[in-house]
Predict the structure of N5-carboxyaminoimidazole ribonucleotide mutase.
Amino acid sequence: MSKVAILMGSKSDEEIMQHCEKYLQHFGVDYEKRVLSAHRNPIETIEFARSAESNGFKVIIAGAGMAAHLPGIIAANTSLPVIGVPLPSSELNGVDALYSIVQMPPGIPVATVAIGKAGAINAAVLAVEILALQNEELRKKLEEFRKQGSKL
């Protein structure tokens, strides 16, 4: 089975990013979560990104607040799809993170979802959609999820 990485810049981001886990669990998708910071441990973060594919990951979800460089530094160091979740961890309530994540330079895309909980949920569902392109079982689970109103 394909594996998804759930990354967050700080342990405090887990309150929102746990919603990714809930949805990936619902679909039966294997995942691994880690706290990695583009600013506090950039070498470890880059090494993770560069080895993600060889470690069995197919999609990376990266949640970050404020300057929100985590999704971008991951995307710059892997060719795997990266989904950025802007987190509302500043006085700007995540708008700063949204702008930081969505404004990537040409050639280094980061799929960007909504700020906060809705974004974490959508990131997980988007990861499932990507994996379902090559997994019939996941595609059927996704169709059933949609028929049930796209909610758990």
